[in-house]
Every structure is written in structure tokens, then in C-alpha cells.
Amino acid sequence: MTPFSKTPDGTVVVGFSAVECDIIADLAAQIAGMLGDIAGSDDADPLFDLVGIGGRSAIDPDPAIARLLPDAYGDDSEASGDFRRLTERSLASRKVANARVVIATLERDSGHVELDEGDAQAWLRTLSDIRLTIAARLGIQSDGDEGATDSDAAVALHDLYDWLAFVTESLLDALED
Fold first, then answer.
1. Left (φ > 0), alpha (ψ -120 to 50) or beta: where does 139 sit?
2. Are 64 and 38 in contact (CB under 8 A)?
3. Average pLDDT taken over every residue of the chain
4. Beta 12-15 vs 2-6: how paired, if at all?
5. Are residues 15 and 174 in contact, defined by beta-carbon separation less than 8 angstroms?
6. pLDDT (tens digit, 9 = 90+) per residue, 118-135?
7. Spatial distance between the Cα atoms of 167 and 3, rounded to a whole number of angstroms
8. Which of 7, 9, 31, 71 is deepest in the core (most CB within 10 A)?
9. Residue 43 carries which DSSP code?
10. Phi, psi of 113 (to 5 degrees)
11. What does the DSSP 8-state code read for residue 59?
12. Cα 88–Cα 91–Cα 97 angle in degrees, nearest 5
């Protein structure tokens, strides 16, 4: 990967190898797949459906989805359930849309990626969602936690998690320029 940089016209550019493109596209597709059912839920209240809101009142049992769609009020499960019921579907839909932007820009640019401001923001959100998902799978709760390291797969996930932190930091640096 060549680090992200900003051109004089404000476009953010980066170069990825084919393998790096495949990894990021696959991970973004996994995020879209995990949240796709929630975003397109058929059991929506008809009134909520008209305005694009809705969701379940209970947090998802999958720790990764729970990390992506957390409780709004950690100390008040009733308020969290009400909030989730009104916002979960639209939040999941936005996350899926962001992941699809990442996939589309990778397919369009074949390694040399050019992002406008909106695409760059979608990339930041999706990279964050991917890292949150990996953290949930590894049992990482906060900075400094190691989480699982008991297998080759866990070590590989840690390496991926760290690499994605580098990619995110590079994008943030370019956006600050």
C-alpha cells in the first residue's frame, strides 16, 4: 500500500496491491452481509417503514453486531430498547451503504483508488466498522487489550486489525492535509 495523499483538487488517492484490494473488499462485503438482514428487515412497522426507521428492541446476540449497533443507554435497558427500535434499521442501512461505497471504489479503480470527500468518509466509517468487528471476534474491549491470541487464526486477525489501523490513520492524515 502506498499511503493516502490528497491531490490539489481535494481528491484523496491511495494505491493498494490486488491482494489488499481483495481483503478490504471482502471485509466490507462481510459487513454489508452481516447487517443486510437488519437493514432490509421485512418485519418493520408500516409507519416506520414509510420514514425509514425501525429495528428490534433487543441487542443482537452476535458480539460483532452488538458492537456495530450498541446500546445507546448502557444503564437503562428500556430506553436503549426504545432507541434501538427507532434507529437500528436506518443505522444498519447507512453502514451497508458505506461498505458498498468501499467495494465500488475498489472495483472501479483496480488498486489505484481515488476518493472524493463523501467516499473518504464512507471509507473511514467502514474501516472503523471492520476493526470493531474484528475486535469483537478477538475479545478486544479497549485499547491495550490483546484479546485472543491462542491460535494462528487469532494472530492473523490481530495482524489484520493492526494493518487496518495503519490504513485508517493514513486516510485520516491525508484528510487533515
1. left
2. no
3. 89
4. antiparallel
5. no
6. 999 999 999 999 999 999
7. 8
8. 31
9. S
10. -100, 130
11. P
12. 140
- At 38 the pLDDT is 85
| 5: amino acid identity, one letter | S
Nearest by Cα to 67 from 95, 48, 44: 95
Phi and psi angles of residue 14, each rounded to the nearest 5 degrees, phi first: -155, 155
pLDDT tens, position by position, 56-112: 678 888 999 999 999 899 889 899 888 888 888 889 999 999 999 999 999 876 789
DSSP 129-165: HHHHHHHHHHT--STT-----SSHHHHHHHHHHHHHH
Tell me if 46 sits within 8 A of 17, measured CB to CB. Answer: no
How many Cβ atoms are within 10 Å of 40's Cβ, its own excluded? 12
Query: CA 154 from chain center: how many Å?
Result: 20
